[in-house]
Amino acid sequence: MTDRSTAAAGRTGPRSGGQAPATKTPPADAVDPRGPRFAAAITATLLFAAVALALLTGTATDPAALAALSPLQRLVEPASLLLLVLFALFVWGAAAGVKRHPFGLIFARLVRPRLAPPAEFEAAAPPTFAQGVGAVVTGAGLALHLAGVPWALPVAAAAAFIAAFLNAAFAFCLGCELYLLLRRARLAGRAAR
């Protein structure tokens, strides 16, 4: 994230112009930015597995094979089941917040105590919104796959994988950036009135 988007996301610390010193205890509405990156790394790995399973089995990419299966048979394929689990995790993260997401809890209990305090915190709203974006993408891919649309499952899983990989590897959260763009557009719309 850039300094401008960092400040807009509610971060405090050196990257936001030193507005507030780093603290060991985050504000109530903030998260350690390493937590969502940790979750994104696990999610990216699972999404990569879903893409690989969908491509290796070939059913999701073969129109004739896909048409021969009932929606229930499509659902119990390994790639579909894995994407269903990931969809449920995205919904959980969007509904409960990234702090209460299973990967967020693992980070908070097992990983964060072994790390130095973060240099900055970030608002929980952008990564929580990103979880909702992930739910929409994986849910749409799963629904289209169950409806018999070829390539829907691997394409949706690949799109979600790219977003999760960018977050895990480069700390670039596409869903967070979308949140900030929508927030700015809403604020700009109010200012124009």
UniProtKB/TrEMBL annotation:
Protein name: DUF4395 domain-containing protein
Biological source species: Leucobacter massiliensis
Region described as Disordered: spans on this chain: 1-34
UniProt keyword Membrane present: yes
Keywords, ordered alphabetically: Membrane, Transmembrane, Transmembrane helix
Spans through the membrane: 38-59, 79-98, 133-153, 159-182
InterPro entries assigned: DUF4395
A UniProt-annotated Pfam family: DUF4395
